[in-house]
Design brief:
The protein is of the alpha+beta class. It has 3 helices and 6 strands.
Length: about 130
Amino acid sequence: MMAVSLLYHDEITLKKDDMDKLTAYIQAIRDVYPDIAIETTQFDEHGQFNDILIVNEESIFRFPKTEREATKLVNEIALLRSLQNCVTLPVPNPIYRSAETAPVGQNFMGYRLLAGEPFWPQTFYAIKD
């Protein structure tokens, strides 16, 4: 049985629409990468441009919400890959990718979770220097 949780929310249960979306995302990953053992997921659909699925607390999968964002994903993947040996900071390295022609809901990229904490706006505004 797979454990599911919502990121950044106190809710413990998913609404039916959210569960349907989560199930579709997991299936999209399995269709392209059948050898990935998905044991746990954390789901966040509150991003402006992407729904986020963290798998096994080690990989992030981003699912664009619109066709426009899916088109941008192609360029973003190319940019992230080109930066891999050019900067000293950790940069997401897209190692998982759906077909570019996959429809919204099945279109995704994935990469290993980077160490650290999100740089939330409230963290920025709390800086005094």
